[in-house]
Amino acid sequence: MRTVSAKLIADAVRDLFIKANHELPGDAFALLKNSSEKENDPLARSVLCRICENVKTAGIMDIPICQDTGMAVVFAEIGQDVHIDGSFEDAVNEGVARAYTEGGLRLSVVEDPLYERKNTGNNTPAVIHTRLVGGDKITLRVAPKGFGSENMSAVKMFTPSATEQDIIDFVVDTVKAADASPCPPIMLGIGIGATFDYAPVLAKMA
Fold it and tell me: What is the pLDDT of residue 147?
C-alpha cells in the first residue's frame, strides 16, 4: 500500500490547470499549423494563422491562450493500492482554487445557476470523474472546459435499428448547426455507447 498526501494531489492539480491554460499540446499545435498552410480560403487561413500566433504569444508571455479558461474537469485514475492521506475531492478543489486565483485565470463558476448566480470566487467546484484501477499510482488528466464549445454539445439516444450512417449524419448535422459559434479551433470529441449520462463523458475524454 502506497500513501499519497492530499497536498501532493492539490499541488499537481494546481500546476496541471495552469499548464493546460497556458500551453497547447504539441500535436494539436502541429495540426493547427499544418491546416493553416494547407487552407485555400484566405479568411480561414488568416484565422488559423492568428490562432497559431496567439498560441506562440501565450507561451512567450506566460499568459492563458484563451480568455475563457473554462470549468475545471478532472479525470482521475486511482490505484487500488493507494491510500490517500486526506480527502481526494477536497484536494482537487483546493488545487483548482489555487490554479485559478494564483494563476490569474478567469473565475466563471457560480454557486446557484438559476437564482443568485453568485460567483464562487475560485472556479470551484470542479467536475471530477474517477476510476479505480490496479496498481499504486494516481493518474490525473485535466480539461479546462470552455463553454464556447460546451454550449454547442449535443447528445442523442439512438434506437437499436440505427445504422452507422445515422450516427455519422447526426454528428455532421450537429457540426453544421454549430457553424461558427464554437470558440475556434474546433476539436471534435465523439462518445458512442454506454448510457445517456456517460456518452458525453466519453466525448470529453476523446
Answer: 84
Point out which residues pair with 131 in neighbouring strands: 77
d(CA 130, CA 161): 32
Task: Pull the grid cell for residue 185.
Answer: 479551433
Residue 182: HSE in the Cβ half-sphere, 13 Å Cα cutoff = 19
Instruction: Write down the pTM of the prediction.
Output: 0.91
Instruction: Provide block-wise average pLDDT over 10 residues at a time, the chain (206 residues).
Output: 96 97 90 93 92 92 91 97 97 98 94 91 97 97 89 92 96 92 84 93 91
Q: Over the Cα atoms of the chain, what is R_g?
A: 19
With vertex at residue 192, the alpha carbon angle to CA 186 and CA 198, rounded to the nearest 5 degrees, is: 95
The Cα 179–Cα 188 span in angstroms is 13
Cis peptide preceding 184, ω within 30 of 0: no
User: Across the chain, which distance is largest between two alpha carbons, in Å?
Assistant: 59
Q: Mention every residue, 6+ apart, whose C-beta is less than 8 A from residue 195.
A: none
Find cell 478543489 and name the residue: 93
Residue 65 phi/psi, 5° resolution?
A: -65, -35
